Amino acid sequence: MIKRIALGCAGMLLALGVGAVELSDKQRATIEERIKPVGEVCLQGDDSCGGAAASTGGSAARSGEDVYNSACMACHATGAGGAPLMGDIAAWADRIAKGKEALYSSGVNGVAGTGMIAKGGCMRCSEQEIHAAVDFMVSHSQ
User: Fold this and answer.
1) Euclidean distance between CA atoms 33 and 30, whole angstroms
2) Is the CATH number 1.10.760.10 carried by domain 64-139?
3) Where along the chain do its domains lie?
4) What angle do CA 50, 53, 58 make, to 5 degrees?
5) Which pLDDT score, from 0 to 100, does residue 85 have?
6) Other C-beta atoms lying within 10 Å of the C-beta of residue 129
7) Model's pTM, two decimal places?
């Protein structure tokens, strides 16, 4: 009796599996779209990433303004997380008084107990680019 039940279950699973193979192209496309990865990893020289060239280590650093606009603006233009607004001279005065190295350290390492995370969340930014963004914000906040 137990063998008959086991065989019956195996047969039912096999039947269900065969049914899954008989999906229409539209059904397959819908499933593939639903389970596709969120992102892709592109390696240098890989042409399969929609034509986007992978970044090379020797590429030129972005300007402070470019980094600000792509990574820093979300908080430093809105005050999100208590970030000092760029251009707010009073909010930046004490920070600027601590010196550029302290500001650079805050930009690169973040500030514990605040909303300022390491590199402002821009993990693809180099330390040089973070320093340039700090310089850009400071120059507009004195």
Assistant:
1) 5
2) yes
3) 2-35, 64-139
4) 165
5) 96
6) 22
7) 0.60
Q: Which amino acid is at 37?
A: P
Q: Are 86 and 95 in contact (CB under 8 A)?
A: no
CA dist., res. 39 & res. 89, Å (int): 40
Residue 45 is encoded by which pair of tokens?
């020289």
Q: Are 133 and 108 in contact (CB under 8 A)?
A: no
Cβ–Cβ < 8 Å for 115, 83: yes
Question: 125: Cβ–Cβ under 8 A, 6 or more apart, which residues?
Answer: 62, 67, 71, 119, 133
Side chain identity, residue 91: A
pLDDT tens, residue by residue, 81-113: 899 999 999 999 999 999 999 999 999 999 999
Q: How large a percentage of the chain has pLDDT more than 90?
A: 55
Query: What are the pLDDT digits (tens) for 59-80?
Result: 688 999 999 999 999 999 999 9
Task: Compute the distance between CA of residue 33 and CA of residue 3 in angstroms, rounded to an integer.
Answer: 40
